[in-house]
């Protein structure tokens, strides 16, 4: 078995696209060797708890409305190719994702990370719901087979907030400065939303015990 550590943020559209591509490759290779774990990286660690208006925040960050429109055009094209639903009209707010990362962490304890991560992406990008809202997070937990009442009590507390912040900080100290970033077998760094074809080649090379071509970097 080979560990595949994925650093992502559930409000990152390229993380959503990247997961859709990875899922396609995994579906075509059900005997793949990966053991996948999702790790926290907040794109906006200083985001207020109530979040922010998405368009104004991104326009300011990217250098204006025209730059945002160009980025969104490319994004929509890549999402369509990957089969990842992104409804830009539904995306009005950017939430703080600390609680979403806490939910992903707790889902990992219950071996439900994939279901929760998938649901977070869908809830935000397809439905436009606020994944910083505890009620929304409890709905996601319930749908993924977690105890929503327990999750609600945890969200109302400070449980694991410091741990998530520390893991985020550790990722940055490792040199991770963008997401998604994938670490294969604690050795090879694969940044960005890679194609399903690339993941299929990686899986085939791992199955043949060959070096992973073209990927370097230590975790």
Give the terminus-to-terminus CA distance: 17 Å
Q: Overall 3D geometry?
A: globular
Widest β-sheet, arrangement of strands: 2-1-5-6
- Tally of DSSP helical segments: 9
Q: N-to-C SSE series? A: EHEEHHEHHHHHEEH
Give the topology.
Blueprint: E1 2-8, H1 13-28, E2 34-40, E3 52-53, H2 54-62, H3 65-82, E4 93-94, H4 98-109, H5 113-126, H6 134-143, H7 148-155, H8 161-173, E5 181-184, E6 188-191, H9 196-207
Parallel strand pairs: 1-2
Antiparallel strand pairs: 1-5, 3-4, 5-6
Plain-language structure description:
The chain is α+β, with helices and mostly antiparallel strands and 219 residues long. The protein has one domain: Glutaredoxin, CATH 3.40.30. The protein is 51% helix and 12% strand. Strand 5 (181-184) and strand 6 (188-191) form a beta hairpin. Helix 1 packs across helix 9 (196-207) and helix 5 packs across helix 6. The radius of gyration is 17 Å and the shape is globular.
In short:
The chain has 219 residues and is of the alpha+beta class.
Identify the notable features of this structure and list them briefly:
219 residues; alpha+beta; Glutaredoxin; four-stranded mixed beta sheet; two-stranded antiparallel ribbon; 9 helices; 6 strands; 12% strand; globular
